[in-house]
Amino acid sequence: MSELRDLIDQASRLVAFTGAGISAESGIPTYRGQEGLWQKYDPAKYADITYFRKNPAYYWNFFREVRYPMLKQAQPNQAHLALARLEQMGKLRAIITQNIDGLHQQAGSRKVVELHGNSRRFFCLRCGEREAMEQVYVRLSEEIQPACISCGGQLRPEVVFFGEALSASVMVEAETLTRESDLFVVVGSSLVVQPAAQFPVQAKQNGSRLVIVNKDPTPLDALADMVYHRQASEVFGTAV
Ligand code: APR
């Protein structure tokens, strides 16, 4: 891992790009691996905007029975903590994450660009009132579909569902960080979902060094300057 440590030491504008794999060791299943979340629950229902509009109860049951308990037990692991340390040391400019679990912020990271939103936050479709998941969860026992505390409107999670566009302002921020980076480190992503998977390519095209830390091979391995097919906490537990 000394090569990675050397690259980090030489970098002045390090950007990390993370996916579900960085949270796997925190007990949050990935999407596409053997233990993938999608082996058990149908994303065409709980993660799709059209289905949510037609049948929100499916999402709320999934949230009550799966998502909330998973988020409540999850703690940041060595890899999350290492990225937060690099930011505190002034080495890391930002994390661009596809994850919606909020574990980077729990680890102490401050500059986190959430491409797909954050499943710990909810907002009202009618008045825009925002609520934290804990407040919403306590109402789930009485109401199968919790209503907004201000206006009684329908709540939804602050995540990007399949069938929805990513926020334009978030994309611009991620593109700017990517373009200005001199070292771009991917941690725990299969790099198969667009438009997120374009960022490592953009970074490389803009002259950044590209490092991929991912347990399994990815379609961008050949583009990278360095590839570690290892556990994220193993690589980051020693490199920083
Ligand atoms: N350390 C490093 N990598 C790991 C670990 C680990 N401990 N555990 C799993 N991985 C790797 C797997 O090899 C896999 O390639 O993490 C990757 C996770 O890939 P996905 O499950 O596809 O997750 P991700 O790349 O974040 O998916 C992108 O797809 O479904 C949408 O919105 C969802 O944000 C998600 C997006």
Question: Secondary-structure map with pairings?
Answer:
Layout: H1 2-10, E1 14-18, H2 21-24, H3 43-46, H4 49-54, H5 56-73, H6 78-88, E2 92-97, H7 103-107, E3 112-114, E4 117-124, E5 130-132, H8 133-140, E6 155-159, H9 168-180, E7 183-187, H10 198-205, E8 209-213, E9 226-228, H11 232-239
Parallel strand pairs: 1-2, 1-7, 2-3, 7-8, 8-9
Antiparallel strand pairs: 4-5, 4-6
The protein binds adenosine-5-diphosphoribose.
Adenosine-5-diphosphoribose (APR) is lined by residues 19-21, 24-25, 30-33, 36, 98, 116, 188-190, 193, 214-216, 231-232.
Tell me briefly what this model is.
The chain has 240 residues and is of the alpha/beta class. It has helices at residues 2-10, 21-24, 43-46, 49-54, 56-73, 78-88, 103-107, 133-140, 168-180, 198-205, 232-239; strands at residues 14-18, 92-97, 112-114, 117-124, 130-132, 155-159, 183-187, 209-213, 226-228. A hairpin with a 5-residue loop joins β4 and β5.
Task: Characterise the protein shown here.
The protein is α/β, with parallel strands linked by helices. The chain has two domains: 143 residues, TPP-binding domain (Rossmann fold), CATH 3.40.50.1220; 82 residues, SIR2/SIRT2 'Small Domain' (2-Layer Sandwich). It has eleven helices and nine strands. It has a six-stranded parallel β-sheet, with helices on both faces. A three-stranded antiparallel β-sheet has the order 5-4-6. The longest helix is centred in the N-terminal third of the chain and has 18 residues. Adenosine-5-diphosphoribose binds next to helix 2.
